[in-house]
Hints:
Elements lengths: L5 H17 L3 E7 L10 E7 L2 H19 L5 E3 L6 E5 L3 E7 H7 L1 H4 L4 E3 L11
Parallel strand pairs: 2-5
Antiparallel strand pairs: 1-2, 1-6, 3-4, 4-5
Amino acid sequence: MAKKNNDDSQELLLAIYDSILEKKGEDILILNIGKIPNSVTNYFVICHGNSDVHVNTIAQFVEHNIRKTLKEKAWKKEGYENSEWILLDYVNVVVHIFQKHSRDFYRLEELWADAEQIELKISTNSKQS
């Protein structure tokens, strides 16, 4: 499946970000990898949860919220079996939801250090606590 235009990604990125925030995902990082040669997607969204249940809850809520608000389904998803690292592939945005120790081990941020980090402002849809 071909990557979509970067402009098509903004609404999806915001909805994913809001969904992760709502379920208290930690240390959310968005990397623009679309400008890196041979990248397989435009953006990575990386975060972590505190347990397998927390990681699973974040992933399920992202899927539910994206389906409900944007009518999009993940093209591929992996990792629900043990919830150490769940990957949700929306073609132009790939979401990585880790347990903290797995995120520290794989260090995707360092592997993609050439990528531009994207700062998103908290949407008005996010619940403040």
